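Dear U.,

For the methods section draft, I wanted the exact inputs and outputs in one place so we can describe them consistently. I've listed the two proteins in the order they'll appear in the manuscript figures. Please don't edit the token lines directly; just add comments below if something needs changing.

First protein:
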Amino acid sequence: MSERELLQQPVSELLEQRPYLRDFFVALQLGMPGPGQCPAAFFAGLQAAQLAELGLDHAALAAQFVDFARHMEQFQHGGDQPVRKVTLLGGRDKQGRPEDVQLEFAPGEVVCVVGPTGSGKSRLLADIECMAQGDTPSGRRILLDDRPPDEAARLSGEQRLVAQLSQNMNFVMDLSVREFLTLHAESRLVDDSQAVVEQIFATAVELAGEPFTAETPVTALSGGQSRALMIADTACLSASPIVLIDEIENAGVDRRRALELLVKKEKIVLMATHDPLLALSGDRRLVIAGGGIRQVLVTSERERANRRALEALDRRLLAVREALRRGETIDFDF
């Protein structure tokens, strides 16, 4: 919508298309224009002294209104362009030895990060999260579509390039699951937020090992339920094109289903894991040792076949776990 259209269209029509514009008038405490009045006419009718108290004149007020509308529109639609490629340029390991790699990641790809505890897996994820430009201990650099990320967007708290699911997750707000999801959906300015909330909740219950209700306080969720909720929230609501996951296997969720959900949304997924099922579910594995990327393995057909055998074993273990939860005895022959 052009600047002229924003200023000349009746407010009732603007609010129907862009309900968030109401916040502009409320925040400045200028009152609301009449339903048939356009913003330009409303602004022209305000007293200069009234605007001076806000440090504005009529032209500045109109310019701020247009800037606000455009900023919110960009926020609603998740930025100008999707990320088509992420490139990682190697830095150095903990001993200062060069890390001679250049890796590219594409939407829909799952890349697993493996290595011993303390090897540097979390450092790698952190480099991607902050879009490192040689300014972290590893010296790595991250490019988006062959270019360094915009510095303002990189350092802005509003940038949504990366969503991260960490090992430690605690809620500190006094809200129910439904209230939390509604708050997040409304803050993202999504259309039909209640339908989105119901979708996220149903997905989270599907992922969690134990059911919960939408009225459950978020502070009462178990670790697995919390992770399931945030995985569903990331998959269904987050506009971030890159998702970083740190050891999802510790969450007690349906990890295969979680991965399917994230990949289906055409996100670039990097996942640190010790779980063989997850590691073999990725397209590639980055082997980390001593703080550096030592090897890049492409998942072979043989490994995919082995993963299917492991899945059968995993389903059996899951059945035993469920039997234990029901208080049953475990008695079967291998």
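Second protein (the one for the lower panel):
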Amino acid sequence: MGILIVLLVIVVLFIMFVIGIYNSLVSLRNQVANAWSQIDVQLKRRHDLIPNLIETAKGYMQHERGTLEAVTNARSQAMGAKGVAESAKAEGVLGKALSKFLLTVEAYPDLKANQNFLALQEELSSTENKIAFSRQAYNDQVLFYNNKIQMFPSNVVAGMFNFAKRDFFEIEDAAEKAVPKVSF
């Protein structure tokens, strides 16, 4: 009878241990999802700013149609991207197109002096900073989550309940890592 009670206590402790690990994995997975939603909010804000910026610049930059179309096309691709890896790639292309656009703006002093354009540039710069902070927070959460599902003993529970590794939000090309420069 004593052995049966000891075995029962061991089984109950084991079940409680598995439940504790499972709950911590669910919590970490939700934190990763929340961090991604913060990036998504900032990316949407960035995508919403771009048409206003392009529309303001159109009147001044009539001979830069290719540059404006490149930004518009990159924005469309970024808005349609699915998943972390595809979004990171599309956002990198958009950042590159924006950088080229902002460099082209340097040749139009009247546009650079336009108050509406300056306000949009400032808002875009602020949004770029928020995206960078959100990306860092997301990658930190992914690192913690991935470490947890790969380390013993939580990897056993993660394998039992199909917790999958998450992708980092990384920009691969060094030129794409540069935040679009905004000058006044």
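Candidate sentences for the figure legend, describing the second protein: The mean pLDDT is 89. The two ends are 82 Å apart (CA to CA).

Thanks,
Y.
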